Amino acid sequence: MSQKVIITVAPTGSIPDRKDNPNIPYTAREVAAETVRAYEAGASVVHLHARDPQTGKPSSDIEVFRSYLDEIRAACPIVTQITTGGGATTLGLSVEDRLRPVLELLPDSASLNAGSMNFGRVLFPNTPDTIELYARRMKEAGVMPEFEAYDLSMINNVEYWVRRQGLLDPPYQFSFVMGVIGGIPATPKNLLAMREALDPTYRWQAIGIGRHQFTMGAMGALLGGGLRVGFEDNVYLSKGVLAKSNAELVEKAVRIVRELGLEVATLEEAREMLPLLNRG
Ligand code: ZN
After folding, report:
1. CB 227 within 8 A of CB 249
2. What fold is seen in the domain 4-273?
3. Opening angle at CA 264, ends 251 and 11, nearest 5
4. Residues 247, 255: contact at Cβ < 8 Å?
5. Ligand 1 centre from 1 Cα, in Å?
6. Cα-to-chain-centroid distance, residue 70
7. Tens digits of per-residue pLDDT, 262-274?
């Protein structure tokens, strides 16, 4: 029996801006409105970065994260996730500063980047000390880590630095981030290799960057994973056609999943399927 497919929306991110697509949300109200429409279209998890509401530049302001979460929580019951990585590459934040919004605002989940890499031209530092600290603190806070693996080696990092040390009980939730320059290229063979390297009891989703969003997403769904769409990773609906909204990207993901004969997980099903630490 095949698993239902969990769709995550990443509505804003920190890299593309309105020069790339004028529909990218910046303010709390805009991010919440985009999230609600994506939820209504079939997304059950939202992954958030903070932006300056005026300029759209990446922000480290915890009050921006708070305003996003407050507006979203008031508007719909979607599973919330905030980044601990975005500020490292765009703002050079310290390890503690990257984690602070997670511990203070207690989203359902937070990203936990599973290794250091060159993210484009920039060093993205996620040393074993950082991985261990984040795993420990997220467990204490009841926040589910979503391990972001940009390459095969990072799956092994989680096994070695988290599981073998007993910092967090498996199963874990992973994202395979495919197509960042500096990470594993977005090819079917590579996605299959990532999938086969993962403990089969874990949950995972495919994140294809740019034009790979729907190809990696479709293959992820076929292989039993979830998929992530949204402006953070891709601003196009199809070649040369900018998406009007995140919901439009979610609607396309839903169509693909259904055409493949699979079913999209409802919010309630997603909450059951995910290894959430705090189900209250
Ligand atoms: Zn992100």
Report:
1. no
2. TIM Barrel (3.20.20)
3. 45
4. no
5. 31
6. 19
7. 999 999 999 999 9
Distance 188 CA to ligand 1 centre (A): 22
Write out pLDDT tens, residues 76-93.
999 999 999 988 888 889
Q: Which amino acid, 81?
A: Q
DSSP string, 191-228: HHHHHHHS-TTSEEEEEE-GGGHHHHHHHHHHTT-EEE
Q: How far is the CA of 84 from the centre of ligand 1 (A)?
A: 8
CA of 124 to the centre of ligand 1 (A): 13
Q: What spacing in Å lies between the alpha carbon of 196 and ligand 1's midpoint? A: 24
Q: For tokens 């320059």, what's the residue?
A: 181
Q: Which two tokens stand for residue 276?
A: 């959430």
pLDDT of residue 1: 46
Q: What does pLDDT average to over the chain? A: 96
Query: Domain locations in the chain?
Result: 4-273
